[in-house]
Amino acid sequence: MPAFKYKLSNKIGPITVEDYRELAERSVPDMVWAYVDYGAEDMQTLEANRNAFARYMFKRKVLTGNEATDLSVTIGGETLSLPVLLAPTGSAGLSHWTGEVGAAQAAENAGTLSILSTAASYSYEEVAEATEKDHFFQLYPWADLRTGRHDLTLSLIQRAQRAGYRAMFVTVDVQVIGNRESERKRGMGRPPIITPARVLNGAMKPKWWTAFLKHRRMGGRNLVEGVGARAAMTSINTQYSMMRPELNWDDFAFMRDNWKGPLYIKGVLDADDAQHAVDLGATGVVVSNHGGRQLEGDVASLDALPAIAARVGGQAEVLIDGGIRRGSDVVKALCLGADAVCIGRPYLYGLAAAGPAGAQHIIEIFREEIKRTMTLMGVGSLKELDSSWLLPADTAIH
Ligand SMILES: Cc1cc2nc3c(=O)[nH]c(=O)nc-3n(C[C@H](O)[C@H](O)[C@H](O)COP(=O)(O)O)c2cc1C
């Protein structure tokens, strides 16, 4: 037989979330990258989210005969093929013009769901029309300045209900906007500051620039009519003028009274707060510090998880987000009491690098990594996961 003729190529496509992160950084202008990837102030919480996972190691078993094949979970009454949902991220159209529509389609093709942000580049109605499943939506509990109360919030809830969204996630950690200095230094302030140098920087990513100019999907489609710079600016002003530090548990009860489906509180790090939300009727809590974008100095989500799971697990669903980049991170979170996790930046990396296919590939990477991790641990099903599978990293000699 003659020798095979082939050319060596080191062009293996992206196979990890980090690979996608590197591609994403090269695909979008610096301003957009700062918005997607950076966090508040010195980014200690952003880093803490990530580092928390390395403090746990697995305590595996051998010859169990177990293989993890079924990763399905039920969240908000919906069966998902894996315990990973797409977290709400505003202005996903900046990462890729398909934005939240691309993300929701990727989620449903992968057998899971996305949570659509109030500050999305596509409206609740647009995403609902472009998808087959009923997805979840996120609500900022703003007070409407014009009436002094909840007119706008109520109309957002009613629109989402009419459009067929299954579950509502009320985000409670944005009383004011976090101090994202790195974003502001790169022009993503309120309002964004566009200089000739920044336009040039955008133009050096011609693929992004062409799509951006063609589709002009920035953000705020739930808040203003129309696309483009003026609409985006109006929506940013609307959003920031409606943040109300005085919002309180009565407002949460108002949201509950006006929503018929499963209800989640997003942005909880304290077990008493989690219990309070559940006592008021929350179906579940999302343990989250907004991906290190809000209160600098917040503890890592993973560090807040065990106490919250101990308090409300069993009465309510416990979700977590923040710093999850590997299937093994998902497994660790599940061992510490989470029912499922949400990912934010990872699917934005996928979108930025390769559109909806990239976002779907990110979910598939998580699926494969979760399965392999569990099988190598000797675990066959998600139900078996608990803290007995973990050891603190510094004492992991056994
Ligand atoms: C670019 C970006 C925009 C975000 N916008 C929102 C939003 O509109 N509403 C919200 O509740 N959370 C928002 N978040 C927070 C995410 O829902 C989630 O809590 C966070 O991204 C999880 O951390 P991770 O990015 O490390 O996975 C945003 C996060 C990012 C990165």
Which secondary structure elements does this structure contain, and how are they paired or packed?
Blueprint: H1 17-27, H2 30-37, H3 44-54, E1 56-58, E2 73-75, E3 78-80, E4 84-86, H4 99-109, E5 115-116, H5 124-130, E6 136-139, H6 151-163, E7 168-171, H7 181-185, H8 196-203, H9 206-215, H10 229-241, H11 249-257, E8 263-268, H12 271-279, E9 284-287, H13 301-312, E10 317-321, H14 327-335, E11 340-343, H15 345-377, E12 390-392
Parallel strand pairs: 4-11, 5-6, 6-7, 7-8, 8-9, 9-10, 10-11
Antiparallel strand pairs: 1-12, 2-3
Bound molecules: flavin mononucleotide.
List keywords for this structure.
alpha/beta, TIM Barrel, two-stranded antiparallel sheet, 398 residues, single chain, binds flavin mononucleotide, 8-stranded parallel β-sheet, 11% strand
Q: Remind me, CATH topology? A: TIM Barrel
Q: Percentage of helical residues?
A: 40-55%
How do the strands of the widest beta sheet line up side by side? 4-11-10-9-8-7-6-5
What is the C-alpha radius of gyration, as a whole number of Å? Answer: 21 Å
CATH arch. level architecture = Alpha-Beta Barrel
Structural class: alpha/beta
Query: How many helices?
Result: 15
